[in-house]
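Protocol step 6 of 9: fold each sequence in the batch and record its structure tokens directly after the sequence line. For illustration, a two-sequence batch is reproduced in full.

Sequence one:
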Amino acid sequence: MDSDRAIDALVRFARVVSDAAAPQEILPLLAEALHEHVGADGVCVVEISGAGGGARVAVVRGLPEAVLQLVPDPDATGAELGRAIAGKCGLTFERTETRPLVASGNLFGTVVMLFRAGSTRNHALPLADGLIDLAATVMESALQLEKLEKSYADLRASHDVLAQTEKLRALGQMAAGVSHDLKNILNPLSLHLQVADRAIVRGDVAEARESIAEMRQVVRRGVETVERLRSYSRQSKESKAELVDLSRLAREAIGIARPRMAATGHVLHLVEELGAVPVILADGGELVSALVNLVVNAIDAAGDIGKTVTLRSGEEGANVFVEVADDGPGMTPDVEKRVFEPFFTTKGSEGTGLGLAMVYATVQRYSGTIALETAPGKGTRFRLTFPISSAS
């Protein structure tokens, strides 16, 4: 066979096998090409497959179908394999040629070409080598693609598991944060119940009604807090933002947190410097929870007799702010750096480390910022700043 015809045969074979995706498609094409272009009177392709390297006759051309029943020795790759196949045929062949199907160190099988005595066909063995090498290269590419697809599938499955795990972890953090908020919000109930009980005993209906109204407000905020967890678990995208007054929310937070001060026995001054401010767009329940967190932390930090916790609000340019400040011991630089990290706490077993992390997340959710000023011996001040609503 002249070189032009050989090149033409290789090009056509390359085009055909490039569309094949698996050995069961490539091997028959190879056998046909060897039979047609190389002049082999018979072709047998033995495939090596499986983790154990088992061998089987995959394709035959010009040979009896009985050859397909042969169970070859996977270690027999040379003349021994050729003789075994020729013997199975019951035909007379002048010679056999065997070639390994190998690429990048991977053995895919063995090709056996059989030639009859006196055959006048053109035996183009160099072309056979090119066709076999090309087929092995395509099979290697298919193998690598299969491995890549499996790796991608495994990666996607791992990503799905990781995403689910992350969702559960986030849900766990959310649940812990909500329980922290609930504890702060619902703590005043016991005090209001005692006040209402004593008022009823005294027959002071007005004071009892006032305590009941306070309890109703506390319960409402508690229900809103639980509802946030339910909305998160449903991955709800509905926003419950509304126009709210930061000063009014700060007063409500003071009312909720005040019993905490009574329960601790601290003799503190709660100072309100809350003026009239423009409204902002946010979830009032979330902001109340955030402010209660800050006020409770300030009460716990101030601690000593005569200390002061101050809530201040105001307008600054296109923003409004609310501050919670105390004149307690302040924070060290190391604590200040980590104060918004989830699960970081300085309260030991009594703290969850989620309060300030939840405050930070709430402020971020409504396009706000949170600033912290503190130093050892100089107290602590948190400032929450939010953009004024265009509906103001």
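Sequence two, same batch, same settings:
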Amino acid sequence: MSGMVYLVGAGPGDYRLITLKAIECLQKADVVVYDRLADDRILRWAKSDAEMIYVGKASANHTMKQGDINQLLANKAKEEKCVVRLKGGDPFVFGRGGEEALLLKAQGVPFEIVPGVTSAISVPAYAGIPVTHRAVATSFAVVTGHEDPTKVSSSMRWDKLATATDTLVFLMGVENLPYITKQLIDNGRAADTPAAVIRWGTKPEQRTLVTTLGSAAEDVKRNGIKPPAIFIVGDVVKLRDELSWFDATDSRPLFGKTVLVTRSRPQASRMTEKLEGLGARVVELPAIRIDDPADGYEAVDAAISLIASYDWLIFTSVNGVDRFFDRLYAANKDARDLTKAHFAAIGKATAARLKHYGILADIVPKEYRAEGVIEALKNELAPGERVLIPRAQEAREILPESLRAYGAIVDVAPVYETKEADVDAAEVKEMLAAGEIDFATFASSSTVRNLVKIIGDASLLAKTKVVAIGPVTAETCGELGIKVAAMPEEYTIDALTNAVARLAAE
């Protein structure tokens, strides 16, 4: 198979603005050559064994020269590899994709262009500023904020550009703003023309400064606005007052807030999605990972071999459900072998996971913890009935001990173990120390204990409001000297997320 290069636009910052075709390319790439991306989560779509090569450029700091990047793409493709060249925005809008494509063409390397959502229109849109609007602006121009420094003379026709279109959008122009604004004013654009500078557009940390053409340079300096940012000039800026939506705290109460999520990475996505929907910037630092139980699967496999003898199966987590059914299927059994048993689930999420496997829980307690299950089973469980609890390797013994006190015969079968995640916590530690994380969320006691091990010092959370999913997790926080600011009445991830939003509103 011959090599192939895809020149792919990653979009402006919000990772969800990447295109389906871009994801398809990443999923089959052998090599990913990428710039400094606004959101590294885009790289998660790449294959786990893909070769990742960072060639990012930030202002005057270049990791690799452009000519070397061009040749790198060609060389990797000549090794019969599928190569994705991933760059922010669109590869043909000041992305130097044309230069890369020309070298590939010259060396006979096949390539495709995968357009990306450009910041020229998406960033103003996230700020509530349309680049065109009937009766306000019927044309717009996209302009580089800095030209190729190797050019002998500027090709910018300021005398034409200043008044040629209703809306002007300058990319990468914040550092040259004094020069840009002077040229526009000197060439006929009114100094009182509405203007805006938008930093980190489409991301939760987006910041929009509304100003005028004549005041923009001074306002940017006074407010300390640094790249990456775009500069937009035109009457369309006035529409922001009515069309602002992304940073509207009435509908997105967590905008401008940073939330730490400590769940295992596969489970973090749902909570992250909900928090981001409320406007939050989410920092994921998985404190736990789900692994095989230390003692192996002998206990659960033995129980499954006698599955018809059990009167009750009790599940205390979603992970327990998934791991149990994995072992059930491995034994060439399925839900039809569970017809005798009744089922109890510790909460709505666990019950929903059971339903995924075709099982409706007979009991879901009002209180989503072990004590709630015990209370719910008090009048349901007959002495001598057999109970199987597939659960984590390490868990509180209150549930099996209490059920035995009722006269039940209880088997506990470990189906997974939570371990400390192997993650780099340096950036999060710096953010915690600087007070840059507004809220930290904990969905289990193990996430609390392991996060403290990872960051090394529980006092780093002193400047952060901690939200615990329930009393057991809150108690663990207290044991480690961590003050809990809020706890939802219902012990679910949705309720935990809503508790963060209420705390922010307060």
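Proceed to step 7 once all outputs are recorded. Observation for sequence two: The chain is about 35% helix and 20% strand.
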